[in-house]
Amino acid sequence: MAKTYMDRGDLVPDKVTIAMVRDRLSEDDAQDGFLLDGFPRNVPQAEILRDMLKDWGQALDLVLELVVDDDEVVRRLAGRRTCSQCGRIWHVEFDDKQDDLCDACGGSLFQRDDDKEETIRHRLEVYQEQTAPLVAYYADEGILVGVDATGPVEEVTQRAMEAIRPFMG
């Protein structure tokens, strides 16, 4: 059900997303800690998450904001290609792909609907309307840390790890 919304570039409805998160966080392996990626996506979800965690005697330690401009987001996502046979993901720029074949298995590469520029730009508009207010919400909570997410993966990873290190046990 969630994939249908994502393929259109829309966000998955709160009811569906919250049920998935609640189920996942109730699993045994999440009891000693967890990392959420892409959730919450709006302030009402953040409030439900806060209340859910409070009921379980937990709270968020940190919210990491990866800061990157829209054109960079489009460049990164629109360049992705997926192998039709093995599912491996390639990038037309970062992997120096000169053809439309998978170097791993020889399958043909294709661009997923949610990686097309018009879909990405729509998602960015939805982000500005619904998700961007979370920055202020978590800043007010005192748990927001922003990290510059431009540059090579290794550099962004290093900056992110440095930002979360003080919060690790």
Automatic annotation (TrEMBL):
Any one Gene Ontology MF annotation carried by this entry is: zinc ion binding
For the ligand (ATP), the binding residues are R80, G151
**Could you say which EC number(s) this protein's record lists?**
2.7.4.3
Enzymatic reactions:
AMP + ATP = 2 ADP
Q: What biological-process terms (Gene Ontology) are attached?
A: AMP salvage
Provide the residue positions that the database annotates as binding AMP.
D10, L11, V12, G38, F39, P40, R41, Q45, R112, R123
Q: Which residues bind Zn(2+)?
A: C83, C86, C102, C105
Q: Which PROSITE patterns does the annotation name?
A: ADENYLATE_KINASE
Q: Which GO terms describe its cellular component?
A: cytoplasm
Principal localization reads cytoplasm
Instruction: State the compartments where it is located.
Output: Cytoplasm
Task: Give the keywords, sorted.
Answer: ATP-binding, Cytoplasm, Kinase, Metal-binding, Nucleotide biosynthesis, Nucleotide-binding, Transferase, Zinc
Pathway membership? Purine metabolism; AMP biosynthesis via salvage pathway; AMP from ADP: step 1/1
Domain Adenylate kinase active site lid spans what residues?
A: 80-114
Q: How does it assemble?
A: Monomer.
Q: Which family does it belong to?
A: Belongs to the adenylate kinase family.
Record remark on domains: Consists of three domains, a large central CORE domain and two small peripheral domains, NMPbind and LID, which undergo movements during catalysis. The LID domain closes over the site of phosphoryl transfer upon ATP binding. Assembling and dissambling the active center during each catalytic cycle provides an effective means to prevent ATP hydrolysis. Some bacteria have evolved a zinc-coordinating structure that stabilizes the LID domain.
Q: What does this protein do?
A: Catalyzes the reversible transfer of the terminal phosphate group between ATP and AMP. Plays an important role in cellular energy homeostasis and in adenine nucleotide metabolism.
**Name the record gives this protein:** Adenylate kinase
Q: Which organism is it from?
A: Nonomuraea muscovyensis
